[in-house]
Amino acid sequence: MRVIAGEARGRRIGSLKRLGARPTTARVRSALFSILESFGLEGKRVVDLYAGTGTLGIEALSRGALWADFVEASPKRCALLRETLNSLGFSDRARVHCMKVERAIESLDGSYNLILMDPPYTLGPVHDILDRVGALAADGAVVAAGHSRHHPLEPRYNRLGLITERRYGDTVCSIYREGGNP
């Protein structure tokens, strides 16, 4: 797995199959970031929930995000992610929080401009998380949620309104905006 674009383009993102992470594919990342770049990534604060190997947050950093927080519950994945951030030169612009997403929503300071989440499909729909994730959002923030087509999401979650949805095989990317209307 490699970074697709930006300052770290072509560099490897650490991945270990035995850790059980399902990294977002290059095809889906490329399509997702084509959409997200229309909102601007330069100078944004990003949080990558269910980070796994960190592919989404690392891609955002490579494309100009100012800061990224990564939330991952697995200590082994957290260690790998820290190593990857260090090897890519992003450790001074990022922090790995080794905790469950539910706890992170309550403990992280809000005001993120971009919230990325691609939870394991085995969790099923993450409606409760999307209901609460607005607490992390700055005014006008964008939330990108990856999910299985078998687990459709709602057009609205509290302060978040769906603005577009794209399907790539079994993966669906739902893009929400804080304060947005469906």
If you had to describe this structure to a student in words, what would you say it looks like?
The protein is α/β, with parallel strands linked by helices and 182 residues long. It has one domain: Rossmann fold (3-Layer(aba) Sandwich). It has helices spanning 26-36, 55-62, 75-88, 101-107, 127-133; strands at residues 45-49, 67-72, 94-98, 112-117, 137-148, 156-157, 160-168, 171-178. It has an 8-stranded mixed beta sheet. Strand 2, helix 3 and strand 3 (94-98) form a beta-alpha-beta unit. The longest helix is centred in the middle third of the chain and has 14 residues, at 75-88. The protein is globular. The model has no long low-confidence stretch (mean pLDDT 88).
Chart the SSEs and their pairings.
Layout: H1 26-36, E1 45-49, H2 55-62, E2 67-72, H3 75-88, E3 94-98, H4 101-107, E4 112-117, H5 127-133, E5 137-148, E6 156-157, E7 160-168, E8 171-178
Parallel strand pairs: 1-2, 1-4, 2-3, 4-5
Antiparallel strand pairs: 5-8, 6-7, 7-8
Sketch the topology as an H/E string, one letter per element.
Answer: HEHEHEHEHEEEE
Approximate strand percentage? 25-35%
- Tally the helices: 5
CATH architecture assignment:
3-Layer(aba) Sandwich
CATH topology: Rossmann fold
Task: Name the CATH homologous superfamily.
Answer: Vaccinia Virus protein VP39
Structural class: alpha/beta
Rg to the nearest angstrom?
A: 15 Å
Major sheet: order of its strands?
A: 3-2-1-4-5-8-7-6
For the secondary structure, the number of strands is 8
Tally the structural domains. Answer: 1
Distance between the ends: 34 Å
Residues in helices, as a percent range: 25-40%
What can be said about the biggest beta sheet? 8 strands, mixed
Which stretches of 5+ consecutive residues score pLDDT under 50?
none
- C-alpha geometry: globular
Q: On the 0-100 scale, what is the average pLDDT? A: 88
CATH class bucket = Alpha Beta
